[in-house]
Structures are given as structure tokens and as C-alpha cells.
Amino acid sequence: MNPSPAVAVTGLTVRHRRTVALDRLDLSLGPGVHGLLGPNGAGKTSLIRVLATVAAPSSGRVELLGGDVASHRDRTGVRRRLGYLPQDFGYYPSFTVREFVAYVAWLKELPADRVPAAVERAVERVGLADRIDARMKTLSGGMVRRAGIAQAIVNEPDLLLLDEPTAGLDPEQRVDFRELLRELGREATVVVSTHLVEDVAAACTDVALIEAGRLAFQGATDELTALGGESGAPDDSTTHAVERGYTAALRAHRASDVRTSGAHPKEALR
Amino acid sequence: MTAPRPEARPSPAPVPRHDPGPGPGPGPGPGPRHDSGPVPRHDPESAPRPGPGPEFAPDPGLAPRPGPGSPRPPWHVTDALALRYAEGSAPETDAWSLEKHVESCTACAARVSAAVRAGAAGPALAAVRAELLTSLGHRPAPVPVSAGAGGAAPSGSPLGRWARLWWTVGPALRGSWAVAVVLVVGGAFGLAHGAGFQGAGSLLLAVSPVLPLAGVAVSYGRHADPLYEITAATPSGGLRLLLTRTAAVLAVCVPLLTAGAALLPRVAGFPGAAAWLLPGLALTLAALALGSFVGCRAAAATLGGGWLLAVTGPLLAGPNAAGAGAAVLAPYFSGSAAQGGWAAAALACAALLVLRRRSFDHLEPR
Questions:
Q1: Are the beta carbons of B230 and A104 separated by less than 8 Å?
Q2: Which region, left, alpha or beta, applies to residue A53 given φ > 0 means left and ψ of -120 to 50 means alpha?
Q3: A209: which strand partners?
Q4: Which of A64, A225, B46, B135 has the fewest CB atoms in 10 Å of its CB?
């Protein structure tokens, strides 16, 4: 077992006023691409925000890349090695893509002389090289999303958090994006929050399924698929199998509800 | 291939270690070692190397003398050999010898380096060196890079000094707030000179402390900065970014508003042009401190609104005489008691801000 996973969360609770978004969640993630699945309102964005250090947990312990994010010094160190794409993000309309990405690189304290090359590489990896000097306000929604991914990966992060990154991408761009995800996941720990099961089937090595602030399932994508069982339908596909696994895991979690909250989630460190 | 740099070696002590190459013998054939070069110079001061080892013939045509304990004949790279090496026409064994020799002989390394740099490979070497230095975190030196193409700042680089300043100042100075400040000052001048309104100075003074508040409100936070959530996840986000942007706002406000107030027609008994500085600073710091609890926009709106109600409102409601304006403003601006109070308030807010500094590390409350 890896002694220090990139993400180690114990007893994480997040409250928004009266409502509980995350309820004593334990989660441990190592390198690879992790799909974060769950129904709307399950707490995916709350979890990503805590992992991105922009939201403070109400209680619980969060260790990222070996540092405790409750300490200011560790948090600053973690932030230099972090990439974060929020679900909704804005931009300065008059900035070009190059300026937008370079601005974030500057905020992430990349050495100034490494920034130009890092920016060009990041923009090229998301397939926006031909629009690098276009102003942000002239870009389509999918291009803005890709510029957002570029800013997240500009510092070659060890921990990359993407909240709904495929929203607004057309099918071809999605295929390219999943390829990029697999590439990034070879070295970094990538957490992708999504409601698209096919994203998980195509790009994620592991899945964490969240339901009502609790971890309903964690394991390899294959294991989730196996939970769905055989369908026998002639047009069955991987996506369908993952969908069935997703549904089966959710139902199993709801059935066992409170009782098994500590026993059901599997520690899958790799 | 490396371009040996003479400055890398502090001592030019020639230690002649002449290995002809990886082969076991001194050379593959009986032919002359230096087929066309002039006679290598002898260096009488070079130390002999004890022990057996392949040696280099001091004279062309002479067979090597492998003898245990025999003094090592000195040998140095001639200009002709360096030139042939640079253009790649030196025989392989000579090239080996040269490469081995320049590892330990500074003078020859310099000679070979100069020849190589002057040759066809020069530009490529310069480019490699510049790139290597850049990747190691050095500022590219102006000397070795050929002028033009690959300079320190490639065209389109957003990292110029001005670009960085532009980034630092934040959205306020790029947006309509800067326009608003200029309009306020210009409006006061228009009232004073165009309409002959005697109270223009007091009006400007009464509005001045609110302007930096507005600047802070449109610079930072969930509502003002579209990049807010992204910046919040970076090491430079939070209080540091807020303070740099506030400083930028004040750097625009303070000279513009003070000079504007000073240039307006003077009215007897009226507070000086700089009277707004301490109230403005106190209100700005109060907005930051309060902002750590409720967010910057709400804090600035509360304090700015309160100021407008308390000070600017009575001024507008009162009689339009210059003296009346001075009477309304005097309790807030005039006298050491008022100014001392603002200074104390500014200090208290700064202290509170220090205590609350970590609250800016996370997203502000909705």
C-alpha cells in the first residue's frame, strides 16, 4: 500500500448552513484517473472544492500530496502543485488565451522564464494552439472550457481536479479530452467529477461513487461494471454495463444506508 | 557535443594526459599521427605523468614510444587542428586526442571553442546554450544569442513588465471603476468652473472616501472577479491578491482625488485637500476587515452606503452655500480629534485584518 496517497480524506464533513453536503466521508486516491460519479446534489462539487483547498471542511482531516491543508504553509505548498477547473469559471474577456493561461501560471508562482513555454505546451495539449492569441470573448463555449483545462494543467500538477470538464465539449473534443486525461493520469492523480457515465467508462481507471454525502462505492471501473452483471441484450456496450453498475451500486448503498457506511466503501489504493 | 567554455576552469594548469581514444593501442595504423599539421609545441613545464600509457607523438611521423616511466611529451592543440576539428575534417584519432586533451587544458579548450563557435555549428550551439540556460532558470544572456529571432522575450510573450503590472492591478483599473473616478474629479471641476458652484470642493471631499471602497468592491471576490474561484486555489490568491489590488486602487485614488481637491477653488474655513486621506484609509481597511466576514462587496456596500448617508446626504440636503458645506464636513474632517479618530480606526481595522488574514484563503461566504 502506498504510504502517502495524493488524496487522504478522513471523516470529512461539509455543511452549507443547515444542509450537510458531505457526511463523514473517507476517501483515499493515488495516481490515475478517478471518476467522481453521483446524482445531482450528492456532494461532488463540495468534495472537489475541499480538495482544491478553496473550501474549508466543517470537520475532518484532509491531506493532499502529503500536506495537511489545515496548515497555511502546507496549503500554499499544495496549491503550487494543484490544478483546478471549477464547474463554473469566468475569464477576463479582453485577455487572449495565452494571457489567460499565463496569468494563472503567474498566480501559481511558476518561474517567470518557464511560463511562456509552459503556456504554449498546455494550450497545445488541449488543442487550442491555433487560437492561442485569440481573445477569450471570441471563443465558443467548448473552446473556453478547453482554455480552462489548459490553465489547470499549466503547472503540470501532481493533483488535478476537474469539475464537469466535458460540459460544452462536442463528441470529437470529448474523445481527445479523454485521451489527454489518460495521458495525465499516468503520473498525476486526476479527479474528474462528471455525470456522464461514458466519460468514466472511456477514461477513468477508478471510480468513486458519492450519494447523499457518503461514499457509496469505490473501486476500479471494471469492478463497477461487474456489479451491473450481464445484460444479455445484443446491443450491450461498455457504457451500458457501467450504467448498470452505477445503478446497482447506488441501489445497494441506499438499501444498506446508514448501517454500512463504514464497511461498504472499499479502500482501493493504487 | 559540448562546447567547452574556458571560464569554467579556473586554473590553466596544463596536465597533459594524451589518450588517443578508447582503443587499447596508441593508434590503428603505422601512419603519421599528424598528417598535415605543424609541429606541436613543446611545453617544458608540463609535469611528466608516471606510469605506462599511450602517448602522443610530439612530431609527425614519429612512432609513439610506449615506455614505462618515460616522461610525457607535452602537446597542445594547434590552430590548424582546431580549425579542422571545427569543420569536421580532422582524422578520427586526432579528434579523440583533442577531445581528451581539452578536458584538462584550458588554453586549448578556449582555442577549440573559439574555432567551433566561429564554424558552421556556431549558431546551433548558441541556440542550444541559450535554451539550456533558460531551462535551468537563468535569464538568457544577451551575448551568445544571435540577434533577432530567439531573444529574451519572444514576440507575443505576455510576460513583459507592463503585462505583469496590468495583471496585478486587477479588474478595477481595467474596468469602469477607473472611468468613474476620473468622472467624479472631472465632474467636480465642471461644477466649480463651468457652473460656478462654490460647493464643488466639499462635494468632492465628501465623496472621495467612498471611491476606494468602490474600487475594492469591484476588484476582488466572488461577485467582482470572474477568475475568483481559480485564483482562490493558487498560492498567490487570497489576501495577497486582495492587498495588491487594493494598493493599486489607492495608487490611483490618492493622487487624483487629492490633486483634484487642491486645484478646486478654495473656500474659507474649509478642510484641506488632504483631509480625506485618513478617513479614506480607515474606511478601506474597515471594508477589508469586514469583508473577511461577509465578503468584500457586501462590506464595501455597507460602509460606503453608511458614509454617503451620514456625510454626503446632509451636504446635499443642506443649503447650497459654501459655508454650509464646510459646517457639515467639519466634524468629520477638521481638527486633530477627528483625524486622530480616523487614524485610530485605521489601526484597529488593520489589526483586525491581520487577525482575520487566513479567512481569505477560502472562498468568501455567499
A1: yes
A2: left
A3: A37, A217
A4: B135
Residues of chain A in contact with residue B361, where contact means CB-CB under 8 angstroms, are 53, 56, 72, 75
How many Cβ contacts (< 8 angstroms) between chains A and B? 93
**A28 beta partners:** A8
Instruction: Give DSSP secondary structure letters for A255-270.
Output: HHTTTTTTTSS-----
What angle in degrees, to the nearest 10, is found between the helix axes of B322-333 and B200-207? 30
Helix or strand holding residue A161 (H, E): strand A159-163
DSSP letters for B323-346? HHHHHHHHHHHSHHHHHHHHHHHH
Residues 114-133 of A with CB under 8 A from B: 114-116, 119, 133
**What's the rounded Cα separation, in Å, for the pair B366 and B363?**
9
Amino acid at residue number B19: D
Please, what is the angle between helix B106-118 and helix B122-135, to 10°?
110
pLDDT digits (tens, 9 = 90+) for A214-251: 999 999 998 988 887 776 666 667 777 888 888 889 88
Q: What interface predicted TM-score (ipTM) does this complex get? A: 0.89
CA distances from B298 to A5, A72, B360, B364 (A): 40, 26, 15, 11
C-alpha distance from A48 to closest chain B C-alpha (Å): 11
Q: What is the DSSP track for A37-85?
A: E--TTSSHHHHHHHHTTSS--SEEEEEETTEETTSHHHHHHHHHTEEEE
CB neighbour class for A186 (10 Å; exposed up to 12, middle 13-18, buried from 19)? exposed
Spell out the domains of chain A, with CATH numbers in brackets: 1-81+158-221 (3.40.50.300), 89-156 (no CATH)
Query: Measured between CB atoms, which of B164, B228, B233 is closest to A53?
Result: B233
Higher-confidence residue of B152 and B217: namely: B217
Across the beta sheet with A67-68, the strand order is A19-29, A7-16, A59-64, A67-68
Identity of the residue in A98, A108, A114 whose CB atom sits nearest the CB atom of B156: A98
